[in-house]
Each structure stands twice: as C-alpha cells, then as structure tokens.
Amino acid sequence: MDGYAAPDFANIEEYLDSQLKKSLLRFITCGSVDDGKSTLIGRLLYESKMIFDDQLASLKNESKKFGTQGEEIDFALLVDGLAAEREQGITIDVAYRFFSTDRRKFIVADTPGHEQYTRNMATGASTADLAIVMIDARKGVLTQTRRHSFIVSLLGIRNVVLCINKMDLVGYDQDVFDEIEADYREFAADFGFEHIQAIPVSALAGDNVVVSSENTPWYDGPPLMEYLDTVEIASDAQEKPFRMPVQWVNRPNLDFRGFAGQVVSGTIKPGDGVRALPSGKTSKVARVVTMGADLDEVVEGQSVTITLEDEIDISRGDVICADKSPAEVSDQFQTTMIWMSDSPMLPGRSYVMKIGARECQMQVTEQRHRIDVNTRAHEAAKTLGLNEIGIVNVALDREVAFDPYNANRRMGGFIVIDRMTNETVGLGLINFALRRASNIHRQSMDVSKELRASMKGQKPVMLWFTGLSGAGKSTVANLVEKRLAAMGKHTYTLDGDNVRHGLNNDLGFTDADRVENIRRVGEVSKLMLDAGLIVLVSFISPFRAERRIVRQMVEDGEFWEVFVDVPLNVAESRDVKGLYKKARAGEIKNFTGIDSPYEAPTDPEIHIDADKLAPEEAAELIISRLEQAGLIGG
Amino acid sequence: MTTLTHLDRLEAESIHILREVAASMQNPVMMYSIGKDSSVLLHLARKAFYPGPIPFPLLHVDTTWKFREMIAFRDALKDDPNIDLLVHINEEGVEQGVGPFTHGSAVHTDIMKTQALKQALTKYKFDAAIGGARRDEEKSRAKERIFSFRSAQHRWDPKNQRPELWSLYNARIKPGESVRVFPISNWTELDIWQYIYQENIDIVPLYFADERPVVERDGIMVMVDDDRLPLEPGEKPEMKKVRFRTLGCYPLTGAVESEASTITEIIEEMLRTTTSEREGRAIDKDAPASMEMKKQEGYF
User: Fold this and answer.
1) Which of A205, A480, B208, B298 is packed most tightly, with the most Cβ within 10 A?
2) Domains and CATH numbers, chain A
3) Domain for residue B148, yes or no?
4) Nearest CA in chain B to A82
5) DSSP string, A133-177
6) Is residue A48 annotated as part of the catalytic site, yes or no?
7) Residue A196 binned pLDDT confidence (cut-offs 50, 70, 90)
8) How many CB atoms within 10 Å of residue B106?
9) Does A240 lie at the interface with B, CB-CB under 8 angstroms?
10) Do B113 and B214 share a domain, yes or no?
11) Nearest-CA neighbor of A427 among A413, A440, A442, A445?
C-alpha cells in the first residue's frame, strides 16, 4: 500500500518530471453479476488515493442507504454511477475510471456482466490493452466467463488477468484456485491470448489487490496492482507498416496543404515514401508539422499534420500508408459483426459504415452464419438480433483502405450506423476482402486465369443446367446467378435464347447443327472460365455425348452438371411456352421427351429433384454445394 | 524508438476528437468557460489545426456573475486573430433580475447557465458544442460518451447512448438535434495540471493563491468580488490568502486557503489534498443524483 501513498516532494520539479514520463494502460474488467468487479475497481481507486475525503463521506452515507455491505463501505457505489443503477444495484453501462501510480496512468472500462449488455462489453474491450476477467471462487468458470472471454478475444485483447475473487469465502484454498485456473486455461486455449496471469484476490478484504496477502502464502505471483503497473503490453504498433487515416485537410493559405490525422501504426520520417489509398498515388513526406516544431519522426499514437513533396489529391477518409507496404483496398469483405440494436440486422438493407475517417454506404450481402457466444458453435441464421454475433459478408458503394482486424485494430474495425435513426447499431471486424481491388497489384505479373479469378474472390466454374423443357432450368439458374451477384461474385448466363439469337443464329436443329451449337457454347464458356467467371449454361442438352464433349473441353472440376429433374408429365403440364402442345400436335419435330429422347445424367454433380424442391430451395442447394467445394468461399 | 507518455497519448486522442468534430459537423462551437480546462481545450484546438486558425468559434455563456478577473482574461482573447469569440447572456434573465442571491443558486444556474446555453445553441444553430467536461469529475459523467447525443430539446438520455467503439465517433444527427463533444473526457484533474505545467499554458490568476477578501458561509469561503454580494449582519470580509480549484459564478464558488502561487506548488498541494475538486461547487450538494438530473435537462 505504501508504494502508492503520497509521494516524496523533496523536489517537486524532479517529481513532476518523473510523473510526466508515465505510460498509459487501458484495461477492461469483465465478469458476471456479483463477481465483484465494481468492488475491485472501487478498491483500486481507494488504494491509489483517488478517493477524496468528501467522496468517502458521501460514500459512507450512500453505503448505508443503498449498499449491500451493512455498516461497511460499499466500494461498488463509487463506480456504479447512474441513479437508476444505484437503485437497481447493477451496473448497466460502460463507465470509465481513472487512477494512476508512479509508473502508469490507468483508464478502466467497467462493463456490465448482464447478458443483454454484450454490446457494452465489446465497447469497453475495443480500446483496452488488457482484460481483467473476474471469477467468483465459489462458482468457478461459468457460461458468462466463456462469453466475456470470447468477446475479449474477438476484440483483439491478448493479455488477460484472471482475478479469482472472493477467496476469503473459500478459505483461501489453493486447490480451488488451481482448479479454476486450470479450467480457464483449458477452455481459453484457442482464444489467442498471449498471456494469462491468474491472481487469487478478495476485492472486499483487499487480499492481493495492492499488497501480497498473508492469507495466500502459496501464491508467489505479484498482487494485482503491481502486475498492472509492470506488465509489458506487447506493443508492436510501431513496428507495423505506417498508416494514417486523413481526418482533415489543412489549407490555411495557398502555400500550405497538410494532411492531419492520428498515426494508427508504424513510424514515418521526412523523405520516406508514402502511398495514398484508395487512389494508390505516391509521394514522399516533406514535413511533419506540429505547433511546437517540425518533428524528425512521427510514431504510432501521435496526432500530426503531414505535408508531401508532390501535390496529390487526398481527402478526408483516405489513408496515407508506407509506400512499400500499403494497406489493402476493397469494397467487399467478410466480417465478424456484433449487433447492438433492438432492430435486427437485415441482409439487403443499406447501412452506413464508418471505418477510419470514412463513411460509406454498406449492404449486407450475405449472413453466412451466427456464432453462439457461449459455445462458439455456428448456427444457420439469416439475421442478427441484439447482442448476437455473426459472420457476415458486406459490399460497399466505394473502395476503402483497410487491414484485417487481427493485423491492425484501428484499420480493420468499423461501426454500422442505421441510416434512418442514425443510431450505432453494430460493430464489425474485417476478416478479409472478398474481392481485391486491382490498383494494389502494382508489380508486374503474368495475368493468369488464377489471378483473374482471385481478383474476383472466386474460382471459375461452369454450371451446366440440363433437363427437359419446362423443368425450371432457367428459373433456377437465374436465382443462382442473383445469389452469386449479391455475394459479389462475377457471373454470366448462357441460355438457348441469348445464344441462338446471336452467336448461333446460323444454326438449325439438324444433328450436325446441334453438335456445332454445343461446341460453340462450350468454347465460349471456356473463354469465360479463363476470364475467371462463374458461367451458368441453361440448355436442354439431351444427349450424354454432347455434355461429355463440353466436360472434356475444360479442366477437371470446372464442369458441374446440374440435372434439373422433373417427370415428363409434370414438365408437360407446366408447358410455359406452349411447346409441348405444339409438339404433341406435330407442329414441332424432334422435341425432347416427345419424339426425341432425353438421356438423363447418370452421375451429375448436382441432382435437383425439381418436382419436390421449390426453385429457391434448389438455388440454395446449389449455392451451398459451391461453398462446400470452396469455389465461392469467403 | 519514441515512447509516448500518458500525456502524449491523451493529447493525441483529444486532437483526434477535435478534428473529428470540425470535419464531421456543419456548425460546431467550443464552449469556453474561462477555467483551466477551457484553457487546456483551447490549447489543444490550436494544436489540432495549426498552422490554420481554429475552424469554429468559442462561446462563453456569461451569467453576469463571473469573477472580474475571468472576464478580463476572456476579453484578452479578442485580440487573437486565430480565435472567433462569442459571448452570450440570457437577457431575459437579466431583465428579470435573476441572480444567485435573489433566486437561489438552483434557479440562477438554470436560467443564466442552462437556459442561456440552450438559447445560444438555438440562436446560432450550432449542431455540436465542444465542452471541457471530464469523466473523473463526477459519477454520472463517468458514463457519458465523448460524442454525446442531444435531442432537439437538448436532452440527454443516459439509458440510450450510442456505443463508442475504438476511436470511431458517430456524429450523424437529424436537423435540430445536436451533439456535445468532450475531447478531454479521459483526463483527470492531475493530468490537466501536469499538462498546463508541461505546455506552459496561461490560466486565470485566480487559480494562484493571493490575498483576497472572503466571507465564510455554510462552510464555504466566498470571495467578495464586487458589491453585489449582500453581507449578512455582522459579516465582514476578511483578507485571506486563498485560491480557487474551480471557477464559476463567484458567489457559488468556494475558495480554499492556500500558499500555492505557482503551477508546481498547485500540483504539490493537489497531491497532498484530501477533498475533491467539485467540493467547492455548490451545485452538486442538493441531491445525490443532482448532476445527472441537470445534465438530462441540458446543463453541460
């Protein structure tokens, strides 16, 4: 305790100068209701002399009125700010608290343990370097502990302090402590935490909060305050490539044009090459301007104004990057989203995304699945409700510069804003781009089929829909193409109508013309596959031999036969174009199914029982098969 | 490798916030209360937009009961070409003779400060008001956002605040609505003083101890700044060496006895002190949640 008491003022200037060298640590506390988070923070404030006499007096008053500790001081009341919370006895929002030691200033986000307030925990975690996870020693690792740890891990925190609290109520039993620690380490094994420090504490009694407790002689680690004071937070932020989102273009007169922003990673010096994204234009840093003096170097965390040697067009929302290792640019992403609004997230609806200093229109193209926050199991779901987490694909109305969230939090995190209410309804973490913009591939390279396809975020494939006239081939192909387009995939559909009327308008229905028809369609499809497209061909193509010709023209695995299968009587009863009627009347010759055979595929890649499946279900089946095969992954 | 200190990081965060307001709002204003927090805020704004001018005006809501030295300090800013200073007074309140002695501190603060502020925001159609409030000042402030949304009626709804992730601020509003923005939310009183020391920022002399005429009332030492302070029978102003830890309307602001006449001495005194900053401010004492109620009504 003494280490944090009033300092020695023998020389106030010297003392002040040492105080000016403090570092900053932001952390979050999380745990279930009644685990004692607020009590712990209250005690940290109290022990670090951040509570004044008048606050203590008012605390004593309020402890009698609202407190849960009888005549004792209820430290939780110091932290539970809003009047409603004091009455309900729970924390209902994120509260920020501050204390400092001689080495560090701490900013604490106190976040609620109640299930419905997941969003607040994510909010607190988004700026934290470290998380304190509270566990009640009597209860051990609970579902909530898992949920909180998952969110903490998702938001990119790599350093966890496991505070096993209320040790006084289990008789300071080492076995209890060891068992909980082992439990926690086991389930958190794949959370990506770099360091977990378990500490046995009693927030109420003060054990191992500031000084090592005599009640836990078996614990040889540091008390909490000492640990917080000395923990090295893996800060590779300066080693990462330089990134500065431009917030403000500073043009006080014709002779000065500076780009103002906060450096989110890396360092830069005058003379260093930079690249502005998404434009891709390059220049060199001329000056790093601040009010005191120009700087020789600017590092992660600083807010500065940069001037460049060349006049290139940069506006708010652009990102200035290191020339040699720029950020990526894209307008379509796979993201992890946490929903924070009572109104559910709706695919297809237009939202506003804010990333860095840029706002753009965003549409959810597809929700791939929802993640159960307690078990981390994937569940099928098309929307996200309040506090739900999902893997969601989004498309923007413009390209933005980004890094994946796990590489750079400030470059890969975004918020989602409702366009009608202007409320912040969700947060997102970019996992990767679904489509890479062309202007980042600056180095010369052979433009291959693979490159063309990877730029589109897909693998080329030909879906050959075969089946009787009226089976629903074109209807299903059309739905599949719509779904693919919504996912940002690049497609083209060839069907009897658009090919017969143009490319093949010189061909009739003789056997020779029929073969030539198929050959041409096969060749055109092959060119489209080479361009990286997903090609949908909707042809009756009744003969196995014809279909085999096309299969042999393309690479293994590129030809997918989709058999749209209905019994003849069903197709004939639909008779959308009135063709069966004409064929029965003898007005059309060689009509498949009537006076010409249909050779059903013996082993199609996809068999659609179109008599039983609705077209939408058929399309869904095809999409899911393509996903399983990794052709449209992402 | 350059290592940033906690003040470097706080400064950078505040500058980032100030630039976000300027860039994303149509018509922002910076509330200027003349106190030390305002001095720090003004310094940060100069830094944020250097070498350009501060791209928004400063607004002082003058209750007409401020210390004379505060007004002199404020008026000195009028000569600065980089600053556009506006002063607003609730003239209706002046006509009705509203003051802390005739109407009580609660009514006075409401009419001359809260209502006056709303009048000014409406008059100039400001859509963002930047303030110097800090989360460490008071419990309900600890939960306030940096970009804090206000309805068209200037009300704050603590139950329905926009979540703030990373450093991404949602500044979108509908016509008539506004935001209050608090760039120094994460600073403590000690940070403020250390920064004033480090950056050598000019502050109102009332913060430094000097011989001043005071009377003691209800445990609070009130400075007799002008002859509007009605003296109770038998009350006699005494010269005492005092200073102020916060500045507001002089009849509502308590002085503390002090010998601290330099920044370093103030910090030294503060580190030894055992009462919180707001103790000298009468407004917090009415009821446990009084600040929260006032904030909901539109007090900053």
Assistant:
1) A480
2) 2-230 (3.40.50.300), 243-322 (2.40.30.10), 329-438 (2.40.30.10), 450-628 (3.40.50.300)
3) yes
4) B140
5) EEEETTT-S-HHHHHHHHHHHHTT--EEEEEEE-GGGGTT-HHHH
6) no
7) very high
8) 14
9) no
10) no
11) A413
Q: How confident is the model at residue A69 (pLDDT cuts 50, 70, 90)?
A: low
Rounded distance, CA A175 to CA A294, Å? 59
Range of the domain at B81: 6-191+289-297
Minimum distance, in Å, between the CA of residue B257 and any CA atom of chain A: 17
Considering its fold, how many domains does chain B have in total? 2
Q: For residue B295, what is the nearest residue in chain A, using CA coordinates?
A: A82
Contact: A301, B50; criterion CB under 8 Å = no
- For residues B129 and B245, membership in a common domain is answered with no
Of A202, A265, A283, A541, the catalytic one is A541
pLDDT category at A633 given cuts 50, 70, 90 is low
Does the beta-carbon distance from A301 to B12 stay under 8 Å?
yes
Decide which of A270 and B290 is more confident. Answer: A270
Q: Tens of pLDDT along B74-129?
A: 999 999 988 999 999 999 999 999 998 888 888 999 999 999 998 998 899 999 99
Q: Which residues of chain B fall short of a pLDDT of 50?
A: 278, 282-289
Inter-chain residue contact A93 with B22, CB threshold 8 Å: no
Question: From the CB of residue A574, how many other CB atoms can be counted at a distance below 10 Å?
Answer: 15
Instruction: Say which residues have a Cβ less than 8 Å from residue A88's Cβ, sequence separation at least 6.
Output: none
Beta strands, E only, B51-91: 58-61, 85-88
Contact (Cβ atoms closer than 8 angstroms) between residue A89 and residue A216: no
The beta-carbon neighbor of A417 closest among B135, B170, B185 is B170
Best of B1, B4, B5, B6 to disrupt the A interface (most A CBs within 10 Å) is B6
For residues B26 and B171, membership in a common domain is answered with yes
Tokens 């990119």 belong to residue: A156
Measured between CB atoms, does A41 come within 8 Å of chain B?
Answer: no
Q: Which two tokens stand for residue A446?
A: 């052979």
ipTM, interface predicted TM-score of the complex: 0.90
Q: Which uninterrupted H or E stretch holds A284?
A: strand A282-289
